[in-house]
Amino acid sequence: MESFFDWVHNNHAIIYIVILSIFLGIEVIGRVPSVLHTPLMSGANAIHGVVIIGAIIVMGRVDPDNYIALIIGFLAVILGTLNVVGGFMVTDRMLEMFKKKK
């Protein structure tokens, strides 16, 4: 337990940045009109592609005995992939609305 507190003490600036970015993200997304939500989220899929690549790189460099980091990296890859695939499916359905019907 003491090692956890040491880690928090050594990385408190990064923890503050993550917490502030969460609140900022909630405020920004909360103010987007629902008409623009789908196009903006389909554009955000590129960001999740970067998350997937970053998680794969981190998982490749982490110590094989560090199971927590491996599990978190694996979850990041899975959830990022689900978000990218789901976003592309929503974008495809949105673009189908603009095609001419036969």
UniProtKB/TrEMBL annotation:
The keyword Cytoplasm appears for this protein: no
Keyword Iron in annotation: no
Main location per the UniProt record: membrane
Localisation: Cell inner membrane
Gene Ontology CC: plasma membrane
Entry GO MF terms: NADP binding; proton-translocating NAD(P)+ transhydrogenase activity
Entries under InterPro entries matching the protein: NADP_transhyd_a_C (IPR024605)
Pfam families: PNTB_4TM
Transmembrane segments: 12-30, 42-62, 68-91
Recorded topology in the membrane: Multi-pass membrane protein
Superkingdom, taxonomy of origin: Bacteria
Record's keyword terms, sorted: Cell inner membrane, Cell membrane, Membrane, NAD, NADP, Translocase, Transmembrane, Transmembrane helix
Function description: The transhydrogenation between NADH and NADP is coupled to respiration and ATP hydrolysis and functions as a proton pump across the membrane.
UniProt-recorded name of the protein: proton-translocating NAD(P)(+) transhydrogenase
Naturally occurring in which organism (per UniProt): Hydrobacter penzbergensis
